[in-house]
Specification:
Elements lengths: L7 H10 L7 E2 L5 E6 L2 E6 L4 E5 L2 H20 L13 E3 L2 H13 L3 E5 H14 L7 E2 L24 E5 H16 L2 E2 H11 L6 E6 L2 E6 L1 H7 L1 E6 L4
Parallel strand pairs: 5-12
Antiparallel strand pairs: 1-2, 2-3, 3-4, 6-8, 7-9, 10-11, 11-12
Helix pairs in contact: 3-6, 4-5, 5-6
Amino acid sequence: MARLGFDFEAAKIVAQQAGFSGMWHQEMNGRWRLPIEEGAGLEWSPTRSKLSAYGPSEAQERLEAAVEKALKGNLMSAPGAQGTGEADLEVIDTYQPLLGWLIQLMRAGPEGEYPKPLVTCAKKVVRQCSYFGGRESITMFSMWISPPYVGHSFKQMTPACPTRPYSITLMDWAGQMLDRLTIGDLYVDDALNDAIECLDLTDQFREKNKGGKSYLMSRRTFEEQYGLRVRIEQIDC
């Protein structure tokens, strides 16, 4: 699931758009849960403002697919924002929300059929690389307790291997993140730039120096299409 930042009210709206209703209840750890089926449902974390699914893996996949379909529907309506006034533009001024938005956009793109072990690995990579938590980088795989390697599944990926649908663009990005983390730390600006390239949006952004600082800025065509303005001060990694 594209784990974007949602406040609690927005998370409940997304759940409703996905066709889920019911009573949310708060757990002892402070998280809010919406039970949907036995042992599975949606969960919202107040510390990270993240919406995710919980439960057995197959149930999580079903719930995530429903939420992603709802999010995709929201994204597909975004081009209707063309002609949006300057005051109506949503502004993104930090890396994390822009990266989350780009991941959501990649997820909403065309899908292909991939071996199930590869999809499992890609999902784990995307999950780990979608949230930097204020850090400038994620440490390379050699420092991880459980890195998302896929090599142990090579022998399973025969012509008879079960497949799963997955976003072609997001698979491309996940592969690039896997390569980067195999040889070194992953920096947030590299993750962001790779996502922009995977979406073929490079010409929709520009860099501008102002007051001795460098900024990543969206172009007008991008802002008119998505109703979104990007003004991010670039970090010097």
